[in-house]
Amino acid sequence: MRWWRKKSELDAEIEAHIRMAVEDRVARGEDAATARHEVEREMGNVALTKDVARETWGWVCQERLLQDVKYAMRQLRRSPAFAATVITTLALGIAAPAAMFTVVDRVMLRPLPYADAGRLMLLNAASQRNEQGGNSGAPYLDLQEWRKWSRSFEGIGFYAQANGRNFLEGATGTEAVGFYKVSANLFAVLGVSPALGRDFRNDADGFAQSPDANSVILSDAAWRSMFGADPGIVGKSVKVSGTPYVVAGVMPRGFTFPYAAGNSLFGGGLDAWTLAQLGDDDKGRTDGTPDYTVVGRLKPGVSEKRAEAELATLQKQIAVGYVDPEARQKHSGAWIEKYGDSLVETDTKHALFMLLAASGVLWLIACVNTTNLLLARAMARQREIAVRGALGAGRWRIMQQFIVEGLLLSFCGAGFGLGLALLAVKLFARGMKHHLPLPVSAAPDWRILIALLGLTLVSALVSSVWPAWMSAHAPVEPALKQGGLQSGAARGQNRMRSVLVMVEIALSMTLLVGCGLLLRTLYTLRHVPLGFRTDHIIVANMQIPGYKFAGENMTNNLYMPLLERVKHLPGVQSAGLMSEVPLGGTFNIHLELKMDAAQSPTRKSWKVDALLNAATPNLQQVFGFKMLAGRFFNMQDTPSSQPVFVVNRAFAREYSPDQHDLSKVVGMKLWHITSGKDAEIVGVLDDVHQSAIAQPSQPEVEVAISQVTPESGIYKTMEGIAMDIAVRTDRDPKAVIPELREVLRQADPALAGSNFTTMDQVVEDSFGSQQLAAHLLEIFGGSALLLCVAGLYGLLAYVVSQRTRELGVRLALGAQRGDLLWLVMRQASVMLVSGVVIGLALAIASGRVVRSYLYGVSARDGWTLGIVAVTLLLVGLLAAYLPARRAAMVDPMEALRAE
Amino acid sequence: MAPKENYKNRIELLQGTLDMLILQTLQWGAQHGYAISQAIRANSGDVLQVETGSLYPALHRLERQKWVKSEWRQTESNQRAKYYQITAAGKQQLASNRSRWAQMVAAIGGVLEAEPE
Predict the structure, then answer these.
(1) Which of A238, A252, A331, A787 has a beta carbon 3.0–4.6 Å from A195's, enabling a disulfide?
(2) A41: chain B residues, CB-CB within 8 Å
(3) Domain span at residue A199?
(4) What is the pLDDT of residues A650-695, one digit of tens each?
(5) Is residue A836 located within the same domain as residue A899?
(6) Chain B closest-CA separation from residue A1 CA (Å)
(7) B105 min Cα distance to partner chain A (Å)
(8) Residue numbers in B near A10 (CB within 8 A)
(9) Predicted ipTM?
């Protein structure tokens, strides 16, 4: 504002000067017109005078910048096609890393809702670090020793999930909640205290020995949604799974523990915490001793490494307390992990970083492409620049002009890119619900915006500095003299641009190879024989209110009647129950039992270690399990008949007495889970993968539901927590699921909250990171291909238009049109072939990055490399053909006359 | 291009001397740009002609240094014009400029008058 006032004052001042000078001359007898003319001649360049005067104010930088921006906008308006191409390219290039950064940020860098969360560690008693990221925790006696002797931690707390599924009875209804047994000091270790009421009373040993034993602390979300945010909740009695507790406090909004990203964003999940109770089995160190997840807060300044070393030394002495040698070995060391790190699977972390790198490559391609386009433009504007130079513009001034243009383009690109990125993150989150409970907020947070700004600035600099430098340092004279488009420097620049296109092709090649490899992996995964059918199956992961059936036989009173009703739904062919459907990833029960040594004399250990699954006979009709040997369960397997097991191939391979004939495992006797009886193995299932298709299947034992009676020790765990119902039907799942839900509701209202999906979806979800990586790389690879084709086309089209005259001369001198076509195609081929060759080398070199995501295909898979190379060549040639044809169509007369 | 002979008899101002001349001119009272240029021209016997291209940037520079201050006033012929007035700091500056100038003249004179030994 001040500047504008000063500017108009200056204008007025000069105007006054001119008027006075004219008046003086008129007074001396000159006529008005001549006087004015003379004065103006004497004054010289008035605009320059004003410029120089303004410079003394020190505003000149801003003023020039404004000029440049205005000029750049005019330039872009004048060539909208060019502007659109560059902006689209940059938008693509900026959107990819911005979206990936958002995801990485959300998943890995998100601050946890605890005080100074970087110092929170998970502590484990184990002989070695679990690289898969599973934290085994420690039994009570061990962690108590840690608390006593360790000097590295400010506090050590622990928790365990309460057994089974738990339901909180609120004022408005009953809902499934996360229910955790925690040490009294846990919230203090986390550095968070209740927003309402008080924390647990902290006893010396961290366990409840006080009236707090039946206290409960609720999460903010549970308090709001189930008790209508009742301010007088503290001190009231609430029931969790039928047991009464007194509410001691309510945690602050957004607090969630154990941390779940989705919960945190939506104001916390439905959670309740109560004090862990010391049981008799906590007082020993045997197989049956429960493990707790141990959370410690490092003292400030103590490194992770030092704490771990101290704990490991301690644990070595503590392990002496284990009587069983196997258990002693298992607990002979200790390792710790940042709590934040434990929340993301290693596999996912790698996948995300790989994808971030891939998006970076895409960004690089976009920048190279933009550089190329700007170079072409700089050459087309050589004359303009030469004129500016001749009129006295400094080199820096010219460069500034170009960089401002680059910035303007970048910011436009970033604007679109931001939109694209948000859209991509939305899609990403929806596609990845299963593996990453990713919170998606509509507004990008400041970190994303800063990252985006950084990307934009760097993009602008990377892509415009070189063209700016080139044009600012180009000699002025030849450009002015020649006047036309053809100038001497063009050849060198064209070579440079060819190199850029080659770089683009090579980079795209790497991305496409990665994409190809992952697609092949997915293809292979999809064609791994699963050992069962997946089509037309609806699966419900039931939310079982186990506490309501205490003392009853759930099989008879809940499951069987329910199954019967489901079977009579229209269109249902068969229905069965299973603790967990294959690949379900919801729950598993680990079974360890001893077998009779005489049955497998070759084995060193007689311990049987397998996953346990309960199933009903008709499951066979639903899944069509392939039997390797023997039979599946049938209706004759009742509580009173001979207990039977069905095992899988992995089990047979591990425990069969004869490794060459796996069917020999049939007839083997194992200690049945119902005490006092031996179970006979009656059948072997073909392999069933439990967690992921890419992972080898683990030994598994199936037990008939009818034979799991309330007397068996495992009954409560087996029937009260996990049960999937699988239904085979030809009808549309969308129509059947509501009917199923209704049937479940009739059986028990809590069951209506069960989770429904289809078996095809379950299998699809189990592909996990490969699926995600493949889909994203498809997008990245596709964009890269598009960009490099655009780059190639742009360069050739430019070269052809530049050489029109030369081509015309060639034609006039007798060249055939085919020769001209070949001339351009040859240039394209050189770029394509060298780009592809460099790309192949890069792809092979970077194979290491993707290797861990591949299944059934090598990182140097010849087919993939070959197909990608050929595709790239063909698409490239197609892109080259258009300008080549234009070259061949040149009319010699027109071409020669054109200039 | 414009013929150059008009300027033949004029001497290019030495770098830095314009500021001194302007400040000196303003010693006798506040003046606007045109009057300053006329005064310098008249007092130098038409030898020194200050071009507007140098005069106005110089005035603005002096104002930025706070050696002169300006205000809009009416001229005798009822024109609105920007008058510049020398400040206390400007007077100091002028004094130091003048003594440097005197030194310079004496020094150059000494060199020019020197007889070979």
Answers:
(1) A252
(2) 2
(3) 134-342
(4) 888 887 777 777 777 787 777 666 656 778 888 888 877 776 777 7
(5) yes
(6) 18
(7) 29
(8) 56, 60
(9) 0.81
